[in-house]
Amino acid sequence: MKDVHSKTPRPIYSARQILPHTAVNITKSAYSSGKLDIYGYSHKETNIQELKLDERAYLCTCANDLLEYKFNASEKQKIEK
Question: In terms of pTM, does the model score above 0.85?
Answer without folding.
Answer: no
